[in-house]
Task: structure prediction
Amino acid sequence: MKLYTFFRSSAAFRARIALNLKGVTFESVPKVFARQEHRTEEYLEVNPQGLIPALDVDGAVISQSLAIIEYLDDTHPTPPFLPSDPLGRARVRSMAQAIACDIHPLNNLRVLNYLRGTFKQDEHAVNTWYRHWITEGFRGLEVEARRYSSAQRYLYADSVSMADICFLPQLFNARRFETDLSPFPTLVAIGAHLESQPDFAAARPEVQPDAT
Ligand SMILES: N[C@@H](CCC(=O)N[C@@H](CS)C(=O)NCC(=O)O)C(=O)O
Result:
């Protein structure tokens, strides 16, 4: 498999964690955002959505990290990324989507660049915006983690799920933008556990071959 990636892309970070957890060997194809490599005609041919990541499975390309995660779960059942019961599955999907659909899109590079360019916002305003949406999203997630995590090792029960796969990259982003995490002790504890897991650690931005 080939993963179109960028070391700092948190959606690609999710895909890397998922591939590592499933023990799938993959080739990384980095696309450098600063050079707009994700906007070239060549890449738009691969992924018309023009975003990173995309997974190439024998020439068939899958875009969107949640779709990639679910595809890997369908094709490589161990370890499962979703619990077996419908309520558990819905709760895990809900936490994953709180991150991937509610927090992350508001803080994507193209959104930040639009604030900078079209709305002439300075770095202070952009960073305040960034932290605001993380804090909003983490507030609910902290309460859910307290309810559903059994041992403060994983977001749901006591095994890895797609919620954890989405969460650790978002925590990295929160730290990168110096978000105050003191209101979220459960999330911080779960993050510390996830970071200590080799499949999560190997997906970190700073250890990727294209890291600068
Ligand atoms: N919902 C998409 C989001 C993908 C996404 O936004 N990727 C970012 C990097 S994390 C990107 O390609 N940004 C490029 C840009 O904003 O120009 C997913 O989960 O894959």
The longest strand covers residues 2-5. The beta strands are 2-5, 27-30, 54-57, 60-63. Residues 112 and 204 are 22 Å apart (CA to CA). The two ends are 24 Å apart (CA to CA).
